[in-house]
């Protein structure tokens, strides 16, 4: 990757144009009253088409994607994004459809929605899905609205608390707050799992439900889920499943069977649609019998959700079919356990049991700290990985471990790739033990070095 | 099992990996899952298809849709999409990257988001923009929540019923559950009071009329509330900006800036505000920084607002947004420049007025809002049965005359030719008076 310093505005040259529009005035000019017109000059770049193409091509070359290399970012499921999905998403039979067209003119689009709905229901054990949510957190919010609708319909208006494990993704409590719910945190035990004894006293007539991620953010299956579901249902609450970590269960375990009433899936994680540098995703919400009557009530986006993302996910499911789906979760789990077992002599493994799609190290066993020299941290390990051509794992999350390094390889990586990653992680551990300064200065060969983020936040420059 | 293109595992690979882990089978990796929860049945999914079969499958589904000439807007506009945009946005370095957490190898994403923020500010006249929202309607809802957070001890918002229906629907949904009182009003100024935190109005109403917002900001500010303006960003090349009207927050949908209709999504919302409200913004924000060698670079900044740090105290729950669609818009605006975007509006506006006049000449409509200014979208009062009109237009290959509040609505973009407009008018003339 080479450093490229321009912003598009800096290429601007007055009088230059990059557009092509019909020039002939076919109709009389229409006028708009002057008091409604823009007063200030519109300062957009004035550049030619080739300027635009070169500029954004240069920008792209400072970016690392799944197609560039291994991307073991925990909880993000950076699996390979099949190219047929892109072809289908741009299919001319769908691209020009207006969202308000009459039903009889969009039968093909409706079949996509219905087919995807049926497929996701089969995979998760839920009854039906709504596709309005555009991302995982948007799905959480929609799902919690459904939880409230369920209770309100029963006249059970006192249920304003939602229980969230301390290991949960930050979006869980944030979504609950946006939905007007109070958050009650339940602690994890030493085994990294929700402690049922800690949960029991929290349950009561004011509980709307519990949000669970299973496997949780430590990559551990919440094996007490059957008991938890029973207790929460007995107290009148509902169970919400955060589908961010669904990948290891794909083809193996169905959230509906575990007792979950509401769930979201991240089509941009489990169902192979690309993340696009932070969206567009899709966070469809599925419900079981109890919540089904309310599924169409929350209208959380303007039309039918991110339809283009749904096309991609449906294409992926059709490629998987009932034969290949059964191997997706197991292969993802195999890869994660293989890395974990291969590196546990160099990195602290706080919970040594079998993991699912991801696991968490708590920093280096030997960080190289010595008299007058600080040891290498998780941040340093992450930055050094960039030098060796890998994306870094998720770092400093979950908050349960101070030096958390969360690794998720997915099922699409070959043994050779995993072995290369393992070799590099061992090499970095050896470098840290020898001289942590090698890591402190990393990355050494990325387009930029480490930025001064504190200064950037203190005096924000947010536009050109 | 037969090989599958997305799974690289050979029998040997699996054996080697299981040995390293110290288990005998893949099933052993699920020993922590209670047996009751293991799904041993066959999944009710179709048989796996080959790539060619998937192609054929979607070709067939595509044929079940009717390709129409679109003469309706209502929040989704059939503007021309330059070929450069999909070419750039399909570059896999952009497409297959995650949120730019590792800034050293994400400068491409961070730079275009910074450019997007800059362009949103230049279009709206606002000081600060975030990195994008899911769509316009959800951005409107978040802006109202933001107004409550920005004002003290005020818990009521006033929503103009002149907003488009999908904006009203989403706002209503978002504000139903938290403790925020919502008042809907055609004339928002009548509802101002000491408990009002924010007021949202459109710059172009649901019937297409360009709003004269003179005095609105003054009245809203005098009552101690924030003014939020919902706008079509494409139209801001010619229409008075939210800043010029005195708004505090500007929101809307970027779809009109080079994003295909695609049955309603993915689109991209924007949310920009005056600098004093910067720390209440939802979502990602990219800022300029300097690296260890003194080079200019870009990072995610002001993260102390966000869910991964603040959890339930965050300004919003938004995490993934619509980053790649922000790139669509950024590339579009780079290509169009100020002149191109102005021409898009002139062509659309002239076409819409031509259609308006020609439709009135058919004798099958009356003016709905005589003398009121419009840009590319307008309403007429039908004098013929709406169902017959719509069917005739559909049969002729047009999506037009959507029913709205007792009127029918039309929209013309620069993509519509005079021939298409004339053909639409000819079809209207076939509807018996």
What's a quick, concise take on this entry?
By secondary structure, chain A is α/β, with parallel strands linked by helices.
Describe this structure in words.
The complex is a heterodimer of chains A (464) and B (433). Helix content of chain A is 34%, strand content 9%. Chain A has 13 helices and 10 strands. Chain A is an alpha/beta fold and 464 residues long. Chain A folds into 3 domains: 3-60, no CATH class; 83-321, 3-Layer(aba) Sandwich (Aspartate Aminotransferase, domain 2); 329-458, Aspartate Aminotransferase, domain 1 (Alpha-Beta Complex). In chain A, the strands form 2 sheets. In chain A, strands 1-7-6-5-4-2-3 form a 7-stranded mixed β-sheet, with helices on both faces. Chain A has a 3-stranded antiparallel β-sheet with strand order 8-10-9, covered by helices on one side. The mean pLDDT of chain A is 97. Chain A starts with 48 loop residues before the first helix and ends in a 6-residue tail after the last helix. In chain A, helix 4 (107-124) packs parallel to helix 9 (307-343), helix 5 crosses helix 6 and helix 9 (307-343) crosses helix 11 (415-434). Chain A is globular, with a radius of gyration of 25 Å. Chain B is of the alpha/beta class and 433 residues long. Chain B contains 13 helices and 15 strands. Chain B has helices spanning 11-21, 51-63, 84-89, 92-95, 107-124, 136-150, 165-176, 216-222, 242-245, 307-310, 323-361, 386-395, 418-429, and strands at residues 69-70, 128-129, 156-160, 181-185, 196-202, 226-230, 249-253, 269-273, 286-290, 296-300, 365-367, 377-382, 398-399, 402-404, 407-411. In chain B, strands 2-8-7-6-5-3-4 form a 7-stranded mixed β-sheet, with helices on both faces. Chain B has a 4-stranded antiparallel β-sheet with strand order 11-12-15-14, covered by helices on one side. In chain B, strands 1-13 form a two-stranded parallel ribbon. In chain B, a hairpin with a 5-residue loop joins strand 9 and strand 10 (296-300). In chain B, helix 5 (107-124) runs parallel beside helix 11, helix 6 crosses helix 7 and helix 11 packs across helix 13 (418-429). The longest helix of chain B is centred in the last third of the chain and has 39 residues, at 323-361. The N and C termini of chain B lie far apart (67 Å). The model of chain B has no long low-confidence stretch (mean pLDDT 97). Chains A and B meet through helix 1, helix 2, helix 3, helix 4 and helix 5 of A and helix 1, helix 2, helix 3, helix 4 and helix 5 of B.
């Amino acid at each position: 990757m080479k450093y490229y310093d321009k912003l598009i505005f800096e290429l601007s040259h007055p009088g230059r144009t990059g557009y092509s529009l019909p020039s002939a005035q076919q109709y009389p000019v229409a006028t708009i009253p002057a008091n409604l017109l823009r007063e200030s000059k519109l300062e957009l770049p004035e550049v030619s088409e080739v300027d635009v193409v070169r500029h954004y091509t240069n920008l792209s070359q400072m970016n690392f994607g799944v197609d560039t290399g291994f991307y073991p970012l925990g909880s993000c499921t950076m699996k390979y994004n099949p190219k047929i999905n892109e072809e289908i998403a741009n299919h001319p039979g769908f691209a020009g459809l207006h969202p308000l067209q009459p039903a009889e003119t969009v039968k093909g689009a409706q079949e996509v929605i219905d087919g995807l709905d049926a497929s996701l229901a089969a995979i998760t054990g839920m009854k039906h899905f709504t596709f309005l949510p555009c991302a995982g957190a948007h799905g959480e919010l929609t799902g919690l609205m459904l939880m409230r609708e369920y209770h309100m319909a029963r006249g059970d208006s006192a249920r304003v608390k939602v229980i969230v494990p301390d290991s949960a993704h930050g979006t869980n409590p944030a979504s609950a707050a946006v939905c007007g719910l109070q958050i009650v945190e339940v602690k994890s035990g030493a085994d990294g799992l929700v402690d049922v004894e800690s949960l029991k006293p929290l349950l009561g007539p004011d509980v709307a439900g519990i949000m669970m991620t299973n496997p949780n953010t430590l990559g551990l299956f919440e094996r007490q889920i059957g008991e938890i579901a029973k207790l929460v249902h007995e107290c009148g609450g509902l169970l919400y499943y955060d589908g961010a970590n669904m990948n290891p269960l794909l083809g193996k375990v169905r959230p509906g069977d575990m007792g979950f009433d509401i769930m979201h899936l991240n089509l941009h994680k489990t169902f192979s649609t690309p993340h696009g540098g932070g969206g567009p995703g899709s966070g469809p919400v599925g419900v079981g019998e109890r919540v089904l009557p309310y599924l169409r009530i929350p209208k959380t986006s303007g039309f039918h959700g991110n339809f283009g993302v749904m096309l991609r996910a449906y294409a992926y499911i059709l490629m998987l079919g009932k034969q290949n789906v059964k191997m997706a979760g197991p292969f993802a789990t195999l890869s994660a356990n293989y890395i974990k077992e291969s590196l546990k002599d160099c990195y602290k493994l706080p919970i040594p049991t079998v993991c699912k799609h991801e696991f968490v190290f708590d920093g280096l066993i030997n960080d190289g700290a010595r008299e007058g020299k600080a040891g290498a941290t998780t941040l340093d390990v992450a930055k050094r990985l960039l030098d060796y051509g890998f994306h870094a794992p998720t770092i400093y999350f979950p908050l349960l471990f101070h030096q958390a390094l969360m690794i998720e390889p997915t099922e699409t990586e070959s043994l050779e790739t995993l072995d290369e990653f393992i070799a590099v992680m061992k090499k970095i551990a050896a470098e840290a033990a020898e001289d942590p300064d090698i890591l402190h200065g990393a990355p050494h060969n990325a387009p930029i070095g480490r930025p001064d983020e504190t200064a950037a936040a203190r005096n924000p420059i947010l536009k050109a | 099992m037969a090989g599958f293109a997305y799974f690289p595992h050979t029998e040997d690979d699996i054996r080697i990996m299981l040995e390293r882990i110290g288990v005998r089978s893949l099933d052993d990796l699920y020993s922590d899952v209670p047996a009751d929860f293991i799904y041993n049945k066959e999944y009710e999914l179709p048989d796996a298809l080959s790539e060619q079969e998937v192609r054929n499958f979607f070709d067939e589904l595509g044929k079940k849709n009717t390709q129409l000439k679109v003469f309706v807007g209502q929040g989704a506009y059939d503007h021309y999409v330059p070929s450069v945009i999909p070419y750039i946005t399909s570059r896999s370095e952009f497409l297959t990257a995650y949120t730019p957490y590792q800034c050293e190898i994400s400068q491409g994403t961070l730079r275009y988001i910074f450019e997007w923020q800059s362009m949103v500010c230049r279009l709206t006249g606002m000081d600060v923009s975030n990195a994008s929202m899911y769509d316009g309607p959800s951005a409107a809802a978040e802006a109202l929540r933001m107004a409550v957070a920005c004002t003290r001890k005020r818990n009521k918002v006033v929503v103009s019923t002149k907003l488009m229906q999908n904006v009203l629907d989403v706002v209503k949904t978002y504000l139903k559950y938290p403790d925020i009182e919502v008042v809907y009003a055609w004339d928002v100024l009548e509802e101002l009071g000491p408990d009002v935190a924010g007021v949202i109005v459109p710059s172009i109403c649901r019937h297409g009329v360009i709003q004269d917002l003179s005095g609105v900001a003054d009245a809203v500010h005098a009552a101690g509330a924030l003014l939020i303006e919902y706008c079509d960003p494409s139209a801001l090349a010619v229409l008075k900006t939210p800043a010029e009207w005195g708004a505090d927050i500007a929101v809307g949908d970027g779809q009109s800036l080079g994003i295909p209709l695609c049955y309603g999504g993915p689109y991209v919302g924007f949310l920009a505000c005056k600098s004093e409200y910067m720390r209440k913004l939802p979502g990602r924000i990219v800022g300029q920084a300097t690296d260890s060698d003194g080079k200019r670079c870009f990072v995610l900044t002001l993260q102390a607002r966000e869910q991964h740090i603040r959890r339930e105290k965050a300004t919003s729950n938004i995490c993934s947004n619509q980053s790649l669609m922000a790139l669509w818009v950024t590339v579009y605006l780079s290509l169009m420049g100020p002149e191109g975007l102005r021409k898009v509006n002139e062509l659309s506006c002239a076409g819409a007025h031509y259609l308006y006049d020609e439709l009135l000449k058919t004798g099958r409509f009356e003016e709905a809002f005589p003398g009121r200014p419009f840009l590319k979208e307008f309403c007429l009062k039908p004098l013929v049965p709406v169902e017959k009109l719509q069917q005739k237009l559909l049969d002729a290959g047009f999506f037009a005359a959507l029913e709205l509040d007792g009127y029918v609505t039309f929209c013309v973009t620069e993509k519509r030719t005079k021939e298409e407009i004339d053909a639409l008018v000819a079809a209207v003339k076939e509807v018996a008076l």
